[in-house]
Amino acid sequence: MSRSGNDIKVRSAGLEAAQFDTTAFTTPPPLAEATVAILTSASLHHPEQPDFAPNDTSFRVLEADRHDYVLGHWSQDVDQTGFGIDYNVVFPIDRLQEMAADGRIGRVSDVHLAYAGNQFDVAGIRLDSGPEGAKMLREAGVDVVLLTPV
Amino acid sequence: MSTLAHVLEEEGLATVSLGIVEEQLWGTAPPRGLFVDFPLGRPLGRPGDAEFQQRVLDHAFGLLEAAGPTIESFPEQISDDGQVLACTIPPIDDPDAHPAVAEARGLRAAYNRTVAATDGRVGAHRVVKPDDIPAAIEAFVRIAEGTPWKEAGIPGIPARVTQDIRGYYEAAAMALADHTPAAFEATRWFLRETEAGKVILAARDRMRNDGVKQPIWFFLVTEQY
Fold it and tell me: Which residue range forms the structural domain that includes residue A109?
């Protein structure tokens, strides 16, 4: 049980989680040689991209070299000021760039993905937009993906 | 979120998932998961604290060394202690307007300062433009005073509109506060201390008492206040 005293987190704990019979497991190359991308469920998008509609299972492609990220998450139960102060608290792209500069990761991907995390029916993500996003990341040479919620 | 971790791994990508709700993380059982006991909306913990964020990432990426599926907990916790932001609302001199509407107009300069400082990451950007926030508040004033919600002139999906009103106020609060707000600190200020927040809560009560479908009124605000 969460210890941070947030009632919303306690309520969210009871939501039904997607079940997988087996756990797929990919062994990555050494991190210092890996290309790393971020996938966030914070419904981020660039200003010119469409906002996420209710039950929207599609994704938006986020560019690493621009920082005009908009938080499109539908839930009222998410703090928004932290992201306003520092986007890295949700989308730590600057931290990854620093790690790449220090040689701790091989390279930061040019493309990153955002989905809408507040979904009760994840079949569309599991069967359609998830594999499509994975294919895009693989074509971009990504080895490792950091998944951040909101 | 962790559903996607399974999908990506099946496609040959190695993943590390941060999870804020511990039971959800364990329930979905991603290949590599790190439980971070932080407030919702801040999965890297502390905005503006690169060192703290790096510690989270170091722990997360360390899971890539594991030979098989693993879930660990980040040892540091950030509690939501229920703080309410203290900030002074600019004086209002508009006796003809509803106090909430006048209040919103009075906050516009502060709002603009935050939007400029944050590249527009916070504020009203979903369905209500900043210029239209006072009119959106007026719609909720009408509901609170008895107008049926469908006739009140809400300029969009009600919960999306209140998100923009909240975003407008929180952005203004960020400019008026003398410190970096903790998670939900500005939200509590909005809902407890401002005229607009009180109007939305009154409209919510009215809708609930009038028998409006629960999702319409329930999601107007967070319960985290």
Answer: 30-148
